[in-house]
Structures are given as C-alpha cells and as structure tokens.
Design a protein that fits this description.
The complex is a heterodimer of chains A (about 290) and B (about 375).
Chain A: E1 10-14, H1 19-31, E2 34-39, E3 47-48, E4 51-54, H2 57-64, E5 68-71, H3 75-87, E6 92-95, H4 102-114, E7 118-120, E8 126-129, E9 133-136, E10 145-152, H5 156-167, E11 172-177, H6 188-197, E12 203-209, H7 214-225, E13 230-235, H8 259-268, E14 272-273, H9 279-287
Parallel strand pairs in A: 1-2, 1-5, 2-4, 5-6, 6-7, 10-11, 10-12, 12-13, 13-14
Antiparallel strand pairs in A: 3-4, 8-9, 8-11
Helix pairs in contact in A: 3-4, 5-9, 6-7, 7-8
Chain B: H1 5-14, E1 22-24, E2 38-42, E3 55-58, H2 61-71, E4 75-76, E5 79-80, E6 84-88, E7 92-103, E8 108-114, E9 130-133, H3 142-149, H4 156-175, E10 178-189, E11 194-196, E12 200-203, H5 223-231, E13 234-237, E14 242-246, H6 249-261, E15 266-271, H7 278-290, E16 295-302, H8 307-321, E17 327-333, H9 336-345, E18 349-351, H10 354-365
Helix pairs in contact in B: 5-7, 6-10, 7-8, 8-9
Classes of the chains: A alpha/beta (about 290), B alpha+beta (about 375).
Chain lengths: ~290, ~375
C-alpha cells in the first residue's frame, strides 16, 4: 500500500505545455504514473508525450476520467487553477507552484476541505509512491520500493534523505513533500494519520524546519495517536530570529518556531531527532 | 514588506479609519498647519523606537526644530532615521490593542484584541489577549465582531466605533494581501471617538504584483541582499565568515547547521534553488565573492538539477574570474562522479560527506 496516491490515480497536468510541464510529464510517465491529460487554455488538440491536451479541466475530466491534478502554472494563476480543478471534481490536487500569495492559498486550502479533496502543497516537490506513481517534480532515481513513509516540508533536503535511505537498501512506501509555505493543505498530522493507517508503512520519517508550530503539533499528535516509530530531522538549528531563510515559512518570529522547541517536542514524543540529514538512514537501519 | 507607520496610516485613511492629523517633516516650514503640542515619530521598520529616543513630544516650534534635528539621522538598531512624522497629540481616554494576522495552524486570519493597548503586546498576558478566527471563504461576519469586542468591556458608543474599525481593517487585510495589520494603540478619545495612533502593516511579498500603488521598500536588506533580490537569488547575510552555496532552502539551512556543529560560522546563505543555469551559477559566485568570505562551501544535491551541469558552470566562473579563497565542494546525486572530476580539475576541494565538508570548511575558516 501507500498513502494519498497509488497506481490507480489518473493525472491531469495543469500547465502542461510549458517547459516544466513537458519535462515532468515525460519524467512521470517514465516513473509509471498514469498521466491521462494535460490542460493549457487555448492549446486543446496538442499532445505532450502522446498525452492529449485540453482547454480546461472539465473537458479533461469528461474525456479521460482524470481524478488527480498537478498544478504547474505560474503563481498569479495558481488560485484559479486549483479552484478549477476542485470544481471539476478532482479529488487530489498537488500544487508545485512557489510564491503563491498566502491569501490565495488560504482560500483554496479551505475550498479543498469543503470539497472533501486532498490538497498537497503549495510550494512543494509533490508526492511519490515508489513502484506505483509519482505526482510532482521529485527526481525518480532516488526512490526504492519499501516500508518507510517520509513527510517533509523541504525539497532538496528530502531528496538527500531519501537517497541516503536508498543507499542503505531502505525503501519507501510513500514520500510526500508538504511544502515550505506558511499555509499548506496537507500537514504532518494528516500524513502521520495516513501512514499509521497504511499497513505497508513500518516506520515514519519527518523532515521539518524552523518556523511555525507544525512540528510541535505533530509531536503532540504522535504521543496520542501514532504507534509506529518516527524519526525526524529539523533544518535551521542555527538560523537567526527574524531572518527569512529561503522558504517563506522558515522564519523565527515572536520567539516561536525555533529548532530547540521542535526538537524538545519530538524528544518528548519519543521521536529520534538526527543531527545530520543522512544520520536518519543510520537510525532507521538500526531500528529495522 | 513592512510599511513605515506613515504609509500604513495612509492606507488607514483610504479605508476611513481615523488617525491623528499629521505629516512628514524635514524642517521648520513643514510644521505649518499643525497645532502644537505635537509628537515627533522616527519612521523605522522596527519596534522599540520609543525606548531608543525616536519618539518625542514637542510644545512649540523652537522645541520642534531642536528635537527634529536630534531624531533625523539618528541610528535606531542599525537603521538610520530618514523620515520623521509629526502628529497632533490625541486626547486619550482609553488604549486598546487590535490586530489581524495569519494563523498558520488554523490557516485562517486571526483577530486579536486586548484592553491592554499601548504597551508591547509580547508583554501582555495570554489571558488578556482575546482571539477570533475568520473563515476566509465567508469573510468577517457580525458575530465575529460581537464575539471578540464583547470581551473588552467597552461602552456602547466605543464598541460601535471599534467594530467599524475592525471591519475596515479586515477589508484592508484581505484587499492588500496583508500578513499583519496591527493598531497599537487604538485609542478612545475624550469625545468618545476611536482613532489609530500607530500602524503596523506588513504586505505579503508574493502578492506585491497585485499592488502597484505600493512602492517597494527595501530598507530591511543590506546592499548585497538588494543586489541578489534584483537578480532573483535567495541570499542572506549572517555574521560568520563561511559562504554557503546550496540548492534548496532546507538543504542550505542544514548546511549552516553542520558548520555550526564543527565550530564554523555561516556568513552568507545563498540558495541556488532548482537551477543549473550557468548564468545563475555565475551570478551566485560573483555575489558570494563580493561578500568576501574566508571559505566558500558549495553543497549540492542533484535530483532534477544535474550535478555535472552545475559543476561546469562553477568551473567556468572560477577559470575565468579566479577566486581568492578556498572552495570546498560536496556534491551528491545525478551525475555526481562526472561533477567531482570537473570540480577537482578546477582546483577545488571535493569532500564526500556533509560532515567531512563542514569540518574542512570550519577548520579552514579558523572558527568564527
């Protein structure tokens, strides 16, 4: 099994004919993802890697039965694209786009909830269930089928950690990139619950960073609801308060969101926190 | 982007929120039309200006001239005061605190109000700050306003005035894509009217394209940070002497953490992002050189970005422009072996693990 996506998801890519769209449709097809449609307004009738392109998501859904969407459109059009997908009945939306105004994200996160849909992102690398499907821009080469679930607020750092798991022969059930923005759809808690319910997942890795209280909230949730072993890494232990460290979400403000507070919360929840990113693989290996 | 107080008040004016009569003043001529006593307020994008001597009451023109010259050019925690706002003094009966900010966990705008206005909100006890959340899809409703203002123990007219201000700042918060709108203090005057004595407005940088009427203010950045921002490179200056170039915010932070572990200190934080474009790599190195680090530590993970393409870009800059400090590289992922060969060929030090590279960089930089 896996969480959120598997071999059954039928994907429509919004923003299919741009440079990113064309490249990643190719990469996803190579990974085994069922990419059934692309959408770019005004480009109906074209094909990208033999995938038909439609003018709107409604047509794509009617013609191909797409139930999942990947958003690759520029930030200023992202809200429109997510609303369009949700209104067309799409049940899983993965939003890669970065620099989306957070007021827009706030609106589509609530609309997705209202529509009972899963929203992953924004500003995330996407999600991959090795051997089944990849929806996003994560590099396919780093994955291996297996039983460790990974949820992360970071991009490259996740690749680094997943790759080090693979080098030790430790595979993954699903790796989900939650996104580095202050407002995101799927949270650590959603991912933890899904991994807990997934029979295939035996251990869970969380990759967090400074800013916000997502890690503290996750730690509290783990104490009450999660029985599987959890391992964690927190980036930004040495970041100065008030400086925005790349991700819009990664800022220590009003003394909240420090690495110390997150590490302390995790340790209280019996979660092992690694000092260096690649130490996680050693810790998971020792456990299994 | 954090707006100066006077610009926040201009927005308040646009939304019909009362503010004291005032204007920016440069010399004695500018005081005409204002009635003494006045308050002179240094315009800086940070708090704590009152304690630093940036806010002064004045009784007459002579007094005003003297104190204006003291405040203009004053250094307040690293910011030179270039603008001073002169305002007529209000007849204060009661001071409240009112703000709308973003609650990341609930993913909703959060209204905060307190009867303890006029002091640093951080020092107000939690139980004296009341909160109310607004569903962004339906917007602020009367019940939201009733819920929160009923806790402040206001008179009927005061409550009416405050509720008008609250619905106006919610409108401002949403229409201008704000991260924060804060009024501290919101005062009730002797005649029972409600007035914003201060303003703190932060607009979400990602939404600036929707607000062409708000001129950007880059005051919080160092000159090199400004340069980087114009080039679209994530670049932050810190106190140490090791320059870090990595790709991805998380990996860059993890790299700084590793340096600190080995007693090194990151001086510059440069995030290449997902690019392997040789032109961007070149710009990144040029910026890094201007920051004059003792050591440069390049830490890359190539996923979609190919390591060898980045390495070629690095080699091209270094061969062409030269570099006057040691460069430690640690590169992993797609085509890493080819990348290492290219970097070695360019005379750079290649390490295999993050720990090893962080240790070497820290040793070469000789501690912080």
């Amino acid at each position: 099994m896996s969480i959120f996506v598997d071999e059954k998801n039928k994907l429509v890519v919004q923003g299919a004919t741009g440079h990113q769209g064309v490249f990643h449709i190719g990469e996803m097809l190579g990974f085994g993802t069922k990419v059934v449609a692309g959408v770019t307004p005004g480009k109906a009738g074209q094909e990208v890697h033999n995938v038909p392109v439609f003018n709107n998501v409604g047509n794509a859904v009617n013609e191909t039965g797409a139930d999942t969407s990947l958003i690759l459109v520029p930030a200023r059009f992202a809200k429109d694209a997510v609303f369009e997908a949700l209104d067309a009945g799409i049940k899983t939306v993965v939003t890669i786009t970065e620099n989306i105004p957070f007021h827009d994200a706030m609106e589509f996160v609530h609309y997705a909830k209202y529509k009972d849909a899963i929203l992953i992102g924004p500003n995330c690398p996407g999600i991959a269930s090795p051997g089944k499907s990849k929806i996003g821009i994560l590099p396919g080469s780093i994955f291996l089928e297996g039983d460790v679930g990974v949820a992360s607020r970071s991009g490259t750092l996740t690749y680094e950690i997943v790759n080090s798991l693979k080098e030790k022969g430790i595979g993954q059930s699903t790796c989900v990139g939650l996104g580095g923005d202050p407002i995101i759809g799927t949270t650590f808690i959603d991912a933890l619950d899904a991994f807990e319910a997934d029979k295939e997942t035996k251990a869970i890795v969380l990759v967090g960073e400074i800013g916000g209280t997502a890690e503290e909230d996750a730690a509290e949730h783990i104490i009450e609801h999660i029985s599987k072993p959890v391992f964690a890494f927190i980036a930004g232990r040495t970041a100065p308060p008030g400086k925005r460290m790349g991700h819009a979400g990664a800022i220590i403000a009003r003394g909240k969101g420090t690495a110390e507070s997150k590490i302390k919360a995790f340790e209280k929840a019996n979660v092992k926190v690694a000092k260096f990113p690649t130490d996680i693989a050693d810790q998971v290996e020792k456990y299994s | 982007m954090k707006l100066f107080e006077y610009r926040g008040k201009e927005l308040f004016g646009k939304y019909g929120i009362a503010v004291p009569k005032g204007k920016l003043v440069k010399d004695e001529k500018d005081f005409s039309g204002l009635n003494f006593p006045l308050i002179l307020k240094a315009q800086v994008p940070i708090g704590g200006r009152g304690k630093a001597g940036g806010i002064k009451p004045v009784d007459n023109l002579k007094d005003a001239e003297k104190k204006l010259s003291q405040i203009l050019g004053m250094d307040i925690r690293g910011y030179t005061v270039g603008k001073v706002l002169a305002e007529e003094q209000a007849d204060i009966k009661n001071e409240l605190y009112l703000s709308i900010s973003l609650d990341r966990t609930k993913r909703m705008p959060c209204i905060m109000a307190s009867a303890k206005g006029g002091m640093d909100i951080e020092s107000v006890l939690d139980e004296e700050i009341f909160k109310e959340w607004v569903n962004p899809l339906i917007g602020i409703q009367l019940f939201n306003i009733r819920n929160i203002l009923s806790k402040l123990d206001l008179g009927r007219d005061e409550s009416k005035g405050a509720s008008k201000v609250l619905s106006k700042i919610y409108k401002l918060f949403r229409e201008y894509d704000c991260e924060l709108v804060e009024i501290n203090p919101l005062v009730i005057t002797g005649d029972g009217s409600v007035m914003a004595l201060d303003s703190k407005v932060i607009i979400n940088d990602d939404a600036m394209f929707r607000h062409p009427d708000i001129a950007p203010e880059l005051v919080e950045l160092t000159p090199l940070e400004k340069d980087a921002k114009e080039k679209g490179i994530a670049f932050i200056q810190l106190d140490g002497n090791i320059g870090v170039i990595a790709n991805g915010a998380g990996l860059t932070m993890a790299t700084l953490d590793a340096l600190t572990h080995f007693k090194g200190a990151g001086g510059v934080f440069l995030d290449l992002g997902g690019t392997d474009d040789p032109e961007k790599v070149k710009q990144a190195f040029e910026l890094m050189k201007k920051a004059k680090p003792k050591v440069i530590f390049l830490n890359l993970f190539g996923g979609i970005t190919k390591c060898d393409t980045v390495a070629k870009g690095v080699k091209a800059v270094i061969t062409k422009e030269g570099i006057d400090c040691p460069v430690i590289t640690r590169i992993k992922g797609m085509n890493e072996d080819a990348a290492k060969d290219i970097l070695k060929d360019a005379g750079l030090i290649t390490a295999t693990t993050l720990q090893d590279a962080a240790q070497q960089s820290s040793d070469l930089a000789g501690g912080a």
